Amino acid sequence: MDLLLHTCCAPCSVYCVESLRGEGIEPVSFWYNPNIHPYQEYKARRDTLKDYAASIGLSLLVREDYGLRDFVRAVAGDLDHRCGHCYACRLEETARYAAEHGFTHFSTTLLVSPYQDHQRICDTAEEMAARYGVAFLYRDFRPGFRAGQAKARELGLYMQKYCGCVFSEEERYAKQIKRDREGSV
Predict the structure, then answer these.
(1) What is d(CA 136, CA 121) in angstroms, rounded to the nearest whole number?
(2) pLDDT class for 182, splitting at 50, 70, 90?
(3) Which of 10, 79, 134, 145 could bond 99 through an S-S bridge, CB–CB 3.0 to 4.6 Å?
């Protein structure tokens, strides 16, 4: 099996890669995350993944696309449902790349997070698999989330504090923003 593994960040990849290797599957990591903002956050996650991949002998393909304007244009009309666009753009590019470069399967580290819409990720991946003629390899990596995060901390990997887009960062601070507004009235 030739597996292209969409990788959102190094910490989320820790358990996924270990689990796949435990099955005898050697994934090729694929960085494509035009949803991550601002640029310093994008760069920190990308560079941490590069360093981590090198340290464990993981092949990594980097598709550079800091897509702030395109991402914001695509989600501006419906911010509450932006995650669907986020999953679709990343998984479509992964499936397309996999099909064009001879991979038999693709998957994603997004499947490790208990904070993501797991079913929507799977449905989107299946749609892209059908569209591009490459198989989606499903694994429920969520049981290993905490252990993977703990190992990432032990390794000193950069640990992000929000999902990726600027709107998820805003949600991270929602309670503080609300307190600040109430205090200034």
Answers:
(1) 11
(2) confident
(3) 134
- The amino acid occupying position 133 is G
Kindly report, residue by residue over 132-164, the tens digit of the pLDDT. Answer: 999 999 999 999 999 999 999 999 999 998 888
> So what's the pLDDT on residue 111?
98
CATH 3.30.1490.20 correct for 3-183: no
Residues comprising the chain, all counted: 185
Q: 19: which DSSP letter? A: H
CA dist 94 → 97, 124, 145, 153, 169 (Å): 5, 12, 22, 27, 25
Q: What pLDDT shows up at residue 185?
A: 62
Instruction: Report in angstroms the alpha-carbon separations of 38 from 31, 35, 142, 171.
Output: 16, 9, 27, 15
pTM above 0.85, yes or no: yes
User: Under a CB-based contact definition with an 8 Å cutoff, are residues 59 and 28 in contact?
Assistant: yes
Distance, CA of 178 to CA of 14 (rounded, Å): 35
